[in-house]
Amino acid sequence: MQMVLEILELIKVLPPLFAIFLLSFFISLLITIVYKFTTNQKFMKMLHHDMKSLREEIKNIKDPAQAGALNKRLMEKTMQQIMHSMKSTFITIIPIFIIFGWMNSNLAFIQATPGEEFTASMTFNYGTTGTASIQSDTLEIIDNTTQEISDGKASWKINGGEGKHEILYTFGNETYKREVILTKEWKYADPYLEKKRSLLGVINLGDKNPIKPESKIRMVAVDLKPLHPFGGFELFGWQPGWLATYFLFTLALTFPMRKLMRVH
């Protein structure tokens, strides 16, 4: 896994759009190769043929009872396909999680740059009133360090020089911190601190020191701009971020790759 991380660091010399394309290509290729060599391709080909035939039959059947029976057979074939491909899923899931975590930490936002004004903010539960403040020993806080909470939010304009900086956020007797990196390189620190989030109550999806569950604070943040790899390109007013860009590339790459490698 260390080798994977080292390769990911080398990719950072590329523009984000090319980096996402390269990672999409690598993940698609990895999944396809592992799938091909960990599944019985003759069996999978037979399943695909049977499922296709059943779908055609269902289209032409008008009797609900017969259609229901065929749908049941189709579901059984689908479950066989899923179960047979589980081995390949388990093999690829860890490296894919590592790559996805790296992409989220390196491709989700545009870094703050030295000398360029940015904002820090605190978001609160609806109806919260009072004041909140921030403090930093190395950054210039342009606004008053103490701000009134308005519409569930307080924010500050900040400036600073190159390097890593720490911001302390205070509300009542609660104090939390966020790190911000001001650099011209492709690098940023996680801009959000939220309450504890987990997957199935087991896997931690947030910070090691999250906001207290009972707190009126919902989030403290360094307000970095989201990265749009396609620049100003819009689709019905929507600009794809890193994750959508990854899925677009993956959809475009997977089908021809499977065809080329004769994967069923």
Can you give the helix content as a percent range? 40-55%
Number of β-strand runs? 11
Q: Give the termini separation.
A: 29 Å
* Rg estimate, integer Å: 25 Å
Biggest sheet features: 5 strands, antiparallel
Helix-strand makeup class = alpha+beta
| Strand content range | 15-25%
Q: How would you describe the shape?
A: elongated
Helix/strand order: HHHHHEEEEEEEEEEEH
Mean pLDDT: 88
Domain module count: 2
Separate helix tally: 6
Order of strands in the sheet with most strands: 3-5-1-11-8
Show unreliable segments: none
Annotation keywords:
5-stranded antiparallel sheet; 43% helix
Overview of this protein structure:
This protein has 264 residues and is of the alpha+beta class. It folds into 2 domains: 2-108 and 242-260, no CATH class; 118-222, Immunoglobulin-like (Sandwich), CATH 2.60.40. It has helices spanning 2-11, 16-38, 41-60, 64-84, 86-106, 242-260; strands at 118-124, 131-135, 140-141, 146-148, 153-159, 163-171, 174-182, 192-194, 198-199, 203-204, 217-222. The chain has a 5-stranded antiparallel sheet with strand order 3-5-1-11-8, with no helix packed on it. It has a 4-stranded antiparallel sheet with strand order 4-2-6-7, with no helix packed on it. α2 runs antiparallel to α5 (86-106) and α2 (16-38) crosses α6 (242-260). It is elongated, with a radius of gyration of 25 Å. The two termini are 29 Å apart. The model has no long low-confidence stretch (mean pLDDT 88).
